[in-house]
Amino acid sequence: MIFRIILVSCFWASVQSAPNIVLVLTDDQDIMLKGLSPMTKTQKLIANQGATFVNAFTSSPICCPSRSSLLSGQYAHNTKVYNNSKSGGCYGVHWRETVEPETFPVLLQKHGYKTFYAGKYLNEYYSKDIPVGWDEWYGLHGNSRYFNYTLNVNGKVLFYSDEYLTDHLKNRTLEFLEKVSSSAPFFAMVSPPAPHEPFTAAYRHQDMFPNVKAVRTKNFNIPFGPLEKHWLLTMPPSPLPEQIVEEVDIIYRKRWQSLMAVDEMVAAMVNILEKRKLMANTYFIYTSDNGFHMGQFSQPYDKRQPYETDIRIPFLFRGPKLLPKTLVASPTALIDIAPTVLELAGIDIPPQIDGDSFLSKLNNMEIQERQILIEYWGEGNSETYNPECPWQRKDNLYLCSSEIACHCQDAWNNTFNCVRHLGSDMNMVYCQFKDKENFVEAYDLTNDLYQVNNIAYDMLPSIRAKYSLALNNLTECVGETCRRIY
After folding, report:
1. Which one of the listed residues 10, 63, 418, 482 is annotated catalytic?
2. pLDDT by residue (tens digit) across 189-205?
3. Catalytic (active site) residue 90
4. Which of 47, 48, 219, 363 has its CA 20 to 30 A from that of 22?
5. In sequence order, what are the residues at sequence separation of 6 or more whose Cβ sits closer than 8 angstroms to the Cβ of residue 167?
6. 64 burial via Cβ count (<10 Å: 0-12, 13-18, 19+)
């Protein structure tokens, strides 16, 4: 697929009425490991007809904080949604009482938009209540599932056993798009489970890609010493044994297979929008809540790490007057969706929003300098102990199992703050870990895309101090102060 960088001239200003907006949010879809490659329909209908953001990031490489940040436009330290657990604020009291009532769908609804939601919401959502801001609601209870799932259907809790969830969400969305009025704007958000674990494809797709294997990147299944990577990545076994690598290949194929139903869903949505002549005034965003690693640094498969595999996301944008096959190099984050949607709708952006509308970036071929905060709080505690592994309860490890040779994926002190710094002559990430060693990692991605060489301890003291100051400011920022360069 060949792209060209195109100068786009204030395309949104010429739209006469409030535009419709569609947002498709997948779950754990990577971009660094070719996670978008099998989705030929989505590439043809969204990417090739609009813009691809090549430097798009999540601000938290984990589902619930990322989704909360997307809906609110705020970093996790402001939503107070720290991880996927109840104790970590996922669908907690602060979210429900303080943040959720000010999310951008609420503002859209107040300004005359018909709003629709279908799919996964927040991991700890198990409620008969419909979140404020939604006219039609088909919210999944709990984490991603493909069969045997429970939905809150406009206030009624219903269980489904046989219908594949992505297909169910597609049908609900098409029903909405078929009946929605052409005289009033709408916002539709669809959040399918793919390609999240358990990586279950629809029956019709389960034999696809028989020869595909996980990408053998430069950092695939290689061990690191204690000064090269933070301690969780140095856990044994490292490198992974061959049987685990084979399992990684199987899961890689299953992830691609699970995305085929999403690809069909996107095509069906575009088709009905075009059939009803709504596409000419509709913006379509396609993205994921976080990325995913598969074998990198001898980790089996998961997210929750500050590396490019986990924090980079697919990000596609199609809309009126946007020229086809546009590449946008300026850095963008999921927290930018809220202010962008509000600007498209002609609604004032609230001062507490940390993100920045990306519409102006479509006018500029240059990379606009930016520092994006990446933050995560480890979930490990004594209750996540797994006796089938040789570690101790007091280690407070998480996601350890014999299926992955007891190479744990998370821990109580897998807690970090990073500044992802991009500009025309800058491509850096600098991370501080909140552990007993106060470990630091830094990478110059211009010369080290796969983050093999940790340069944190070789940097000039003045540069380390500069990034440390940036993190001090970003981890406390609110609103406009989150958009400064420190």
Report:
1. 63
2. 999 999 999 999 999 99
3. no
4. 363
5. 202, 261, 265
6. buried
